[in-house]
Amino acid sequence: xxxxxxxxxxxxxxxxxxxxxxxAVNKFSKQCWKISLQTLQWARLPDLNVARVDHAAVCVGxxxxxxxxxxxxxxxxxxxxxLDEQAGAWCMASDMPIPLNCPLxxxxxxxxxxxxxxxxxxxxxxxxxxxxxxxxxxAWSRKTKMPKTxxxxxxxxxxxxxxxxGRLEFSGYDSEDYxxxxxxxxxxKDQWHTLSCPSYVECLRCSVVWKERILSYGFSExxxxxxxxxxxxxxxxxxVWEHQLPNKARLPDYTCMFGVHLSNKAMRTxxxxxxxxxxxGDIDDVISSVRTLYDNA
Length: 297
What we know:
This protein has helices at 264-271, 282-289; strands at residues 3-5, 10-14, 17-21, 24-25, 27-28, 32-36, 42-45, 56-60, 63-67, 80-84, 89-92, 104-108, 111-115, 130-134, 139-143, 151-158, 161-167, 180-186, 191-194, 203-210, 213-220, 225-232, 237-240, 278-280. By secondary structure, it is mostly beta strands. It has a domain at 1-143: Neuraminidase.
């Protein structure tokens, strides 16, 4: 029985599959894996050129890009590489203007927008920079800085704008003082807009776009449980979403909420058919989290 110890990996959706890159278990890894959401079969992809964790991963057309992160020396990386599966290898692209640990990346019109991240370790201040990579020319440019900086949690593309959410004042992982920002960036005008934050979710974990709304998931001290709130971009207002997680189920912290129409029951049934492979660690959490919260929406 083959065991796949895959954790601390950055993932991106590529068509009907999820691709996991890098990560670390005992040591930093170059490994990359892909799981089909149709067959739930795993496939090994070519290894990265540079082992990395805490990087950004984004799909542009048929190419997968990984940007920044931390290398084996635990220092922030400046390097960028991309995979074209037809070529069967990772190629190095132009380095980012600065090394960045934990950046966010979004594909907009075949350009990769990179936001935030940290120039040093977790105790160093966030960068607040906005960079753009032209994937055709592999050239970088600098855009207007973020008006507020902190630890970014999620980035979303909706209505020709990029929405960013994150922790505004980071004072350590054991701190109970959560202060968040919610902003929209207009790539065409290179302008930022500060928006209202969720009303009840204090500890934000992840977000997803769903039917002209933005759903944010996190912990609410008011009800002492996890909660989904929805954002209306037309009115800049938040409200509690009527469809909550069943049976007080809990998605793992900082897990990407992939909008994949597979029910939790069907996913668990089909997981048993993974050709004798056992999935461990964070990957098991991700697979369990790829569920349809929206069957009845």
